[in-house]
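Incident log, entry 3
Record: Enoyl-CoA hydratase (247 residues)
Problem: checksum mismatch between cached and fresh output.
Input:
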Amino acid sequence: MSVDISQNAAGVLTLSLQRPDKKNALSLAMYRQLTTALQQAERDPAIKVVVLQGSASCFSSGNDLQDFLSAGPLDANHPTVAFLYQLNAFSKPIVAAVAGLAIGIGTTALLHCDLVYAAPGCRFQMPFSQLGLCPEAASSLLLPQLVGYQRAAQYLLLGDAFDTDKAEAMGLVNQQVASDALLAFAADKALQLAKLPAEAVQQSKALMRGKIKRKAEKTIATELEIFSELLQADACQQQLHSFFAKK
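Fresh output:
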């Protein structure tokens, strides 16, 4: 289904996006896999940390739009929606390893991760307005809080792309790591977390993210309502038609 799932003896669960022919664009099946894996990890005391990664050359080009649009209304039954809520609610630490493209959900998902490491020269972008849409994954709340309103407006209103240097400077990325060492580096950081007392780590995360997590859940719901409306509007339909025509 294009997500490789593995667990080591130390309690690190690794979720690897493996759809290279589509630049790791997330399909509905992949969203289902990711959501199920996070739900199981939440319940399993043996799992201490989750690593979310693509390959050493590509993280994710975002939604597989054709697949996304085939799933019907953006309600709780939509695989993308279920993933967004589960990602926001997840109580254990998530370490992300990012290389190459991080487009749309490939960037906004990082706002819910606890440690983010990226290779030099990544392309981060949230081109929602360019498609006639609005932000998702609570990015309209989380990004301004992280980087300030004006900078968030540059990336969410204009949809400007930015590189790893800027992502690190604004705090979206913890550290740059050479491409050939990235996945191993993230795995090592996850192992460091897994060796710490799990209750202390999870309670610390809860103290830092608890209030914003509740606000984010409400923001996701509001964003989805507006996203659904915009999706049916002529402006968005024209942009989507142009997008598919180019492909």
